[in-house]
Design brief:
The complex is a heterodimer. By secondary structure, chain A is an all-beta fold. Chain A has strands at residues 4-7, 10-14, 19-25, 30-38, 45-51, 56-59, 62-67, 72-77, 86-94, 102-105, 109-114. Helix content of chain B is 0%, strand content 49%. The N and C termini of chain B lie far apart (36 Å). The chains are: A mainly beta, B mainly beta.
Amino acid sequence: KNQVEQSPQSLIILEGKNCTLQCNYTVSPFSNLRWYKQDTGRGPVSLTIMTFSENTKSNGRYTATLDADTKQSSLHITASQLSDSASYICVVSSNLKTSYDKVIFGPGTSLSVIP
Amino acid sequence: NAGVTQTPKFRVLKTGQSMTLLCAQDMNHEYMYWYRQDPGMGLRLIHYSVGEGTTAKGEVPDGYNVSRLKKQNFLLGLESAAPSQTSVYFCASSYGGFETQYFGPGTRLLVL
């Protein structure tokens, strides 16, 4: 069964600290992996996208890694800011040779950055 | 450029009532999607459309219908609302089926 799991479920960190969020997936065949940020009361917004051949991708203070062999990804946030408080969703796409990717969303990690 | 917009933002229904959620995008995207998001679960695809006049079932289509009469609009209908349909509904659009999806702000629906 295609699944995406994320850990931890929630996380509280002090402003300025770094943190790492984890994503494990069993999706096959694999097409790409995205990390989305979802602010409270808003829709998700894409942060990064990685294909099979990419093992790291950065977007400002956000760095995503991908290990396609172990089917694991991580999102590292550097020097956290209060505005980083949000839910971070790992999304894995499966190329089923159709006109679109089958997209499987993880449950998200809720991050709270406190002063 | 408003991106993806959804109306209404919040709605309360009684069991058995019907309603339509409207999604509009101004990015000329071909693909549009309706998802629901429940606590502790990932977004789940209800229906999607690969172009004007087309619709297809997603992961959880029962109890919902959709229409895509115009390229920029994607409507989600609930014919007879049930408490199990209490959720936050998100619309999204993308240029192609493999491209990044852009999400609307969501519609909170409470069915009593």
